[in-house]
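Example record for the data management plan.
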Amino acid sequence: MERRIEIVLEIGSYSRRREADIKKACMVEWNFREDDFVRSRGSYGQNKLLRAEALGTISEGEDKNEIVKRIEQAVWRANGAMCHVAVGTRELDPYPFGAGNMSDEEYERQIA
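Corresponding structural encoding:
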């Protein structure tokens, strides 16, 4: 069973020279596209931030925490050093696909 997930990514204090590499690394790990990335200022205009949001799906066996870890590590590798990486996830499907075809008992077993 697949679930739709939105990932919101914020990267700060990264090497500007490696921005293209960071974007590519993120696109390998998740459904990001080049035009999903936007540069902005951080709090008080002090830090440069790279932000992105993208939708994708994960299968039943996948863990979104593992995806978050892979994205963080990919950013750090591409940056050549650790930097600020905040990754938020949000499930967009309140019910599993196909739940409308299940009885209440079947549905309760699925989500338990």
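Summary line stored alongside the record: The chain has a mean pLDDT of 86.
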